[in-house]
Amino acid sequence: MRPPSTPIEVPILKDLTIDNITENVNRINAQCPDARLKYVLERLVTHMHDFARETRLSTQEWMAGIEFLTAVGKQCTDVRQEFILLSDTLGLSLLVDSIDHPKAPFSTEGTVLGPYHTHDALPGAHGHAISADPSGTPLLCLCRVTDSSQRPVPDVKVDIWETDSKGSYDVQYEGYSGDNPDGRAVLKTDAEGVFWFKAIVPVPYRIPNDGPVGKMLEVLGRHPWRPSHMHFMFEKGGFDHLITALYLRGDPYETSDAVFGVKESLIVDLGTVTSEQAKEYDVAEGSKLLTYDFVLETEADTQKLRNEQAQKAMEKLGIWEGMTIINGLPVPAVD
Amino acid sequence: MRPPSTPIEVPILKDLTIDNITENVNRINAQCPDARLKYVLERLVTHMHDFARETRLSTQEWMAGIEFLTAVGKQCTDVRQEFILLSDTLGLSLLVDSIDHPKAPFSTEGTVLGPYHTHDALPGAHGHAISADPSGTPLLCLCRVTDSSQRPVPDVKVDIWETDSKGSYDVQYEGYSGDNPDGRAVLKTDAEGVFWFKAIVPVPYRIPNDGPVGKMLEVLGRHPWRPSHMHFMFEKGGFDHLITALYLRGDPYETSDAVFGVKESLIVDLGTVTSEQAKEYDVAEGSKLLTYDFVLETEADTQKLRNEQAQKAMEKLGIWEGMTIINGLPVPAVD
Lengths: 335, 335
Prior knowledge:
The structure is a homodimer.
Chain A: H1 21-29, H2 35-55, H3 59-75, H4 82-89, H5 92-100, E1 138-147, E2 157-161, E3 184-188, E4 194-200, E5 205-206, H6 212-219, E6 225-226, E7 229-235, E8 242-248, E9 267-268, E10 271-272, H7 275-281, E11 288-296, H8 299-317, E12 323-326, E13 329-332
Parallel strand pairs in A: 1-11, 8-9
Antiparallel strand pairs in A: 1-4, 2-3, 2-7, 5-6, 7-8, 10-11, 12-13
Helix pairs in contact in A: 1-2
């Protein structure tokens, strides 16, 4: 049901029942002057109430939910975002990324951000060794960024993060302060769209499973593993912000990622550094090699695609009538 | 969609899209050995994903949601439950109470618990003065508890709580430790089902609006006021747990309660203490008087009603087929 587009009449909020509470909550919320927020809230309240009605949710279950969400909130710190982890493990993060960052064929697909991105990494030059872990298997990474016409894109800010050889991000180290980032770098692409750096071969790891989300996975009989991967984030004015990751083929968790992030187009086979490359990049011959060409969409193309896909999807859901797109997001049209 | 009742085949979790992520998340969650939890999770994930699809939720909005929920969690303390407040202000609390505590006609209706119940109140005798606030308007409360056949119910534990004359609960006082409960009492009904106590006339108050839920109401253009009321909770083995409240007729917020709790059957007109009552109960003649007869349902009757209403409601929603009731809650039947 849509909130009324006629002037809001504040409802009489009394004797609310299982059958009429939803429309009444939506009517009082419809005083909100922001049409988009009003629509989002109307859908949120309706789905939350329908969830309770369809499950006949008990007071005890409701309280368990309240306590679970409270524990999730309490687990959040500057370096751990348990709500993102919850969203990741319930597939919401991947879904939202897919909706908000539609990709034309051949553009690099996005995937989950995860809870471990920080702003601590310092800008590095090409060739930067992003990992100080001596136990890691050295990995030379030679990458390039192009637009959808295969033209190199220079000056892209590239944010990279990976775990150490034990599967821990720096923020998970005891006493981590942010002053000593490791397994992270921020690079810029050169005139040819190239960026290259030295890293270590990613390993599978468990998402933090000592908190409420870990307990949830356990109760659900799900494992907490993510397949080996390295995160990348690309930013440049005029291009759609790309959050993605590359996954290693053949990983034991390739088809059971706890956060649903793996896409075939993002799976790579590692190569081997040739003697020529060894000299050029100052690494040992025979080392592991990762090469990948990332393809960015322009903001304009993304916005066009986003609008088209929004309309198409909402038509399919039967909820497009009476809607319009404002600032790239669907809202009920005002009469 | 129902989770399959055939043995779970773990899905290949790769290349998940807007259109197939929901069924895949539900399939991996279907490993859960608890049939009820599996059903609740399946409905939760489906509604959460449908919400994102119907709104075409943006990454920025998703992040605003993550930050909002995190702030709600951070606001929770031993004496403040911001998630309950969120549930209250979105109508979920009243809905869940209505589902879980169905009432036959003439039984006392339930309403929201709210975030201010504590376990600090000490057992008091009849006549107990629950409020130490000298600025409050004295109120003599003469109440009785019966079953649905109007027989008195003795030995019911009655938990009562109200604000002071400024609209604050004791837990909201600076430095509140729990050692000095005020505006609270726990009484027992006598052989006649009677309990009586001295209180103060309730006043309207604002739900705590200095946190994220307060900000939400502000953004939505909603006021944070609750009409004057006094909370009651009734417990006795064999009877359905009753959480309710009495509201004063004519309150300025009678029809716009921020948490949707007002029901006509719970609105009272205050009376005046007669000279006889003044002597009997040792209060000033002409004082304000509250009288109310609470009617409890038995657990057995409630369970019967709950099951009947669950089946009826789910039939109406078209989701009853293939369901059964286990421990009073609907779950998909196993083949």
